[in-house]
From TrEMBL:
The keyword Membrane applies. It comes from the Bacteria. It holds the Pfam family CCB3_YggT. GO terms for cellular component: membrane. Signal peptide: none annotated. This is YggT family protein. InterPro entries: CCB3/YggT. Belongs to the YggT family. Keywords: Membrane, Transmembrane, Transmembrane helix. The chain crosses the membrane at residues 7-28, 63-86. It comes from Planococcus plakortidis.
Length: 87
């Protein structure tokens, strides 16, 4: 059970950093259009699109990544709490 929880938390942690990279890449269009940028977008856009449907941009600023990262952090904390309760 510990292995499953650790793998899940590691996957969430890696995805968290990929989301951070995606946010920084959105500030530099030339990086976002590179092969690496397209790969990161393919990984993060399905998750971010969930939040973009409900949270419109404020002016030119898209705050959906902030909410997405916060939600991912809450999920991580929920898994930790649940694992402590069950184990």
């Amino acid at each position: 059970m510990y292995l499953i929880v650790n793998l899940l938390l590691s996957a969430i942690n890696i995805y968290f950093y990929i989301l951070i990279i995606s946010v920084f890449m959105s500030w530099v269009p030339s990086i976002k259009e590179s092969a690496f940028g397209q790969m990161i977008s393919r990984i993060t856009d399905p998750y971010l699109d969930i939040f973009r449907r409900f949270i419109p941009p404020i002016g030119m600023i898209d705050i959906s990544p902030i909410v997405a990262i916060f939600t991912l952090s809450l999920a991580s904390q929920g898994i930790i709490t649940l694992a402590q309760y069950l184990l």
